[in-house]
Amino acid sequence: MRATVFGTGYVGLVTGTCLAEVGHQVTCVDVDEAKVAGLRNGVVPIFEPGLEPMVLANHGAGRLDFTTDAAAAINAAEVIFIAVGTPPDEDGSADLQYVLAVARTIGRNLAEPAVVVNKSTVPVGTADKVRDAIAAELSARGVDVRFDVVSNPEFLKEGAAVNDCMRPDRIVLGARSATAVETMKRLYAPFTRSHERFVVMDERSAELTKYAANAMLATKISFMNEMANIAERVGADIEQVRQGIGSDPRIGYHFIYPGAGYGGSCFPKDVQALERTARQHGFDAGLLQAVEAVNNRQKHKLAELVLRHFGGDIAGKTFAVWGLAFKPNTDDMREAASRSLLADLWQAGARVRAYDPEAMAETRRIFGDRDDLVLCQDPAESLEGADALVLVTEWKAFWSPDFPALAATLRARVVFDGRNVWEPSQVEAAGLAYYGIGRGRSLQAGSGGRHGH
Prior knowledge:
Helices cover 43% and strands 13% of the residues. The chain is α/β, with parallel strands linked by helices and 453 residues long. Mean pLDDT is 94; it is low at 442-448.
């Protein structure tokens, strides 16, 4: 089949590439000429495991192309995906200007029947707005071309997006038209060979399904961070609590890992947008407000632990920071916990030596050149002259450091584990003070870490 995808961000590029991988003819459209030229020359603008070789192979095979020519791409397609950004507006609601701009472009150029697919995460009711925008442009042209609008939200995890696309656990289709649903089932058939994965519903339910899924996962994270803060105060170990509740199949182990707060392009934006949608419809979504508030507070937890250990004075001290991306296997730093930590450390007069396996260029883009930030080539370089180490992102490369070597290197002999990946007893046996998230006695121990020096 012939598909066109508007947008070459995470969702658009992964979706288009995976469709090409299974044999469809795909054109990805973007208004950024430099980005399109780069993609045509094999420059993939995002880091996502497995994506770059797939882009290169399918572009080389002629199944995947990139263009700024929207008109040609629209009229070459049976299915047209809208996969552009929906950033937060000033009030936290999703900004639909890019989605509706694409809809109007489709209406101005559509000449053959097509299925238009909302792949972007959009508020409930957006399918109607897209349908109206296309119809208005067709009417202005005085033409009558059949089109259907389908809500087909994405459920891609950054760091595992290619696998999620190639092996989806469900494909949600929101549509009025049975013909459109059948077209989408044909398009996605190569991804559903082993068993039926389609969940068919109306458009508004599909739109809400996406927000509900992200809000549920964000709620689990904030709940565990709340429990971690209670555990810290009562002298319990949240990791033991996690194992105790995760063994209940009604709860499960997914998304109950406490840490320094969630980030990325989806959870913060979508929880906020859903809460604003509820407010616009006269409902006060108190739980969603609490999820957001808990997360915003949790992003300052590492700085709180640091300041507690050093008696509130870290001016002139140097901190090695491991991990800057909001999660492993991505270079994305949108809403990352590291950004809150760095801002808190700098505000208190500290210096930072930072390392991340993939996010160094993004860190440089965000913060530029500063005297209190050194971007290092590897974890070892970040430790040079450091008083303490703070782990923010749980890249596998950080899971098993040489703790005796850390004790010999760090001037204050203390580590702060923002993802609870290290075993406190092992760290302490090396002569280091250990602080984790909700790990037992760190509050009672005062400035000496979990068990003191």
